[in-house]
Specification:
By secondary structure, this protein is mainly α. The protein has one domain. The chain is elongated and about 50 Å long.
Length: 106
């Protein structure tokens, strides 16, 4: 069973993952906009915290999860997106740990 002492650890991991995700997302959007404007527009012209189209954020997540970025044959973009996926997984694991610890307190 998870110890309650792990809650701050999970929370710190989750916070660091979120900050990293925002930084990498900003870089990803910049690369798409400058190198692949057609892909950028097809994703709904996503921004860091906003999107010009309603499906911009979900389109970006689908693009990453489906690994469509591999079709562009851009090593820098591939490393960036793979890192974003890894950090997203870290965030989800940390969130699950926090939820399990909090729900176990009651």
């Amino acid at each position: 069973m998870l110890s309650e002492q792990m809650l701050p650890v999970f929370f710190c991991l989750m916070s660091a993952a979120l900050a990293s995700w925002l930084f990498l997302t900003n870089r990803f959007i910049h690369l798409l906009r400058s190198r692949y404007p057609k892909v950028y527009k097809s994703l709904g012209s996503p921004g860091l915290l906003w999107s010009k189209k309603e499906h911009g954020k979900t389109g970006l997540l689908h693009y990453l999860v489906n690994r469509n970025y591999l079709n562009l044959n851009d090593p820098e973009l591939t490393r960036l997106c793979d890192g974003m996926l890894a950090i997203g997984c870290l965030f989800l694991v940390s969130l699950a740990g926090c939820i399990l610890l909090i729900s176990g307190r009651s």
